[in-house]
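hey m, so remember when u said the tokens were messed up on ur end? i reran from scratch. heres the input so u can diff it against urs
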Amino acid sequence: MKILLTGANGYIGMRLLSMLLEAKHEVICAVRNEARLSVSKKIREQITVVEIDFLDEPDISKIPIDIDAAYYLLHSMSSSTSDFDEKEELSAINFNKYIAPTNCKQVIYLGGIANDKTLSKHLKSRQNVETTLRKGKAALTVLRAGIIVGSGSSSFEIIRDLCEKLPVMITPKWVQTKCQPIAIRNVMQYLTGVLGNEQTYNDQFDIGGPDVLTYRDMMQRYAKVRGLKLYILTVPVMSPKISSYWLYFITSTSYKLALNLVDSMKIEVVSKDTRLQDLLQITPISYEEAINLAFAKIEQNQVASSWKDSLVSGRLKTNLEEYIQVPIYGCLKDKQTIQLKDKELALENIWAIGGDRGWYYADWLWKIRGYIDKLAGGVGLRRGRTHSNKIYTGDVLDFWRVLLASKEEPRLLLFAEMRVPGEAWLEFTIDENDVLHQTATFRPKGLFGRLYWYSMLPFHYFIFGGMIRNIATKRFK
């Protein structure tokens, strides 16, 4: 089949793409920025990529007429706390316009379970998207899921951060809300199982795991699986704003996503429909097993995708190409060079930078900078990195975003997503004489930007000098 995949660089889309290719489908990936699609060269050669921003006026010539089906995996919850519902509706309207002139027979949409009498703004928006998509030409299949548990999912990573870092928690009363978590593996089985299945056309299905748990239960069971001691004290009053700040400072989530999540966590998300499970003969995976499966992927460095790599997790909201040309004029720079004795060792160290490996010198200072960034409303260091030794354009490395990653050149270019009074780049290149060049570039914004740079010079002298020396020489087991 010829399939249009929207949201191809998202958490679900990245995993679904691999499965569709394994099933020998022809896939057209619709993304806002082609350079942002973080896939291997082998996968890139098997797909067609079209650049579409579904918030813009449609150019229907971009979508092939002969597509058979389409996946709608777009949402805007992380990008705004006020108008994300309007953006989601507009995206769905424009998607219908793109599909109208094609031969598409089925649209598959992954939404949220909405069986409670009172819905959050997020769940109301998901329902509205369903209603909008039903107005389209193709038959619509809706899958409604709750909390998705898997390596790299936002829900799993938030629970992981909370339980691993806080042995004692004072929590708001929404931790008593019931939900029905589902393993990412089951979600993928449902998404692929309904493809081309006419029994699912023009219908909607709840999908969930076998366990109905409160958020408190989920954290306690996570702690049990991980062998952690966890004490939870629930208080009757805690405002949504305080709850959101609590999630923001303790976990790697953004404040906007935290605020929208807290709003939804007050609503029960429990499945009332097992028709699709019976139709597709899917065996639901328990919550504890889903946790073990997630950690098996993490420990084997096989995390297929992570929500943290989404652009909405940082400060970049536009195309990466706008920042890929490092400016020359009006900038302050720190340049370091070193002659390499082992080019491959240096290249390996560059490609492992950040995350658990750290920044090769004075990591405690980098951590302090991360804490300060969080206090200032930035992303901090908690996002880490998805893979320990693989880097793709668009990935996150702590509070940096990868603008370019090429081992062939070889060159790694990062852009700072931390809160700074200006714009900052960090670049590593190795020339034909095996000399490593490390360049930090800062384009200050006003007088305060310059004061910031010069106040940091003493730290730059030690940090950047130590970093390039260790990249060039340090060996890790």
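this time it looks ok to me. The first strand starts at residue 2 and ends at 6. if urs says something different then somethings off w ur setup not the seq
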